[in-house]
Amino acid sequence: MCGTPDYLAPEMIEGRSHDEHVDLWTLGILCYEFLVGSPPFEEENQDLTYRRICKVDIRFPAHLSVGAKDLIAKLLRRKAEDRIPLKKLLEHPWIVMHLTEEVRSRLPSFQKVKSEKA
């Protein structure tokens, strides 16, 4: 397995198959770290970190807004298919509240691309 331990999704740690939903997990980790200054599941050793990740044992500091907590919690769901999709993420109230019209006008449109199997 490759990757930074603090950013791995539960399905990767458990050796299960994974897909693009791991990117949503990682986005949740990044959001938390940007707002708090450290990853949400960081512990003194890798085994403890992995246990907290697999249990989604997340502790939010009091200074985080309700909206930020809600967004992060929707990205850090144990079941990959329960994670908020990118399109819905851009509609989340906490994101909408912080998007200026200038930034909004430059956002790309998201369209599902069918993958080709060889």
TrEMBL record:
Chain segments annotated as transmembrane: none
Domain Protein kinase: from-to ranges: 1-95
GO molecular function: ATP binding; protein serine/threonine kinase activity
Catalysed reaction, written as an equation: L-seryl-[protein] + ATP = O-phospho-L-seryl-[protein] + ADP + H(+); L-threonyl-[protein] + ATP = O-phospho-L-threonyl-[protein] + ADP + H(+)
SUPFAM superfamilies: Protein kinase-like (PK-like)
Matching InterPro entries: Aur-like, Kinase-like_dom_sf, Prot_kinase_dom
Entry keyword set: ATP-binding, Kinase, Nucleotide-binding, Serine/threonine-protein kinase, Transferase
Name of the molecule in the record: Serine/threonine-protein kinase
Species: Daphnia magna
Taxonomic placement: Eukaryota, Metazoa, Ecdysozoa, Arthropoda, Crustacea
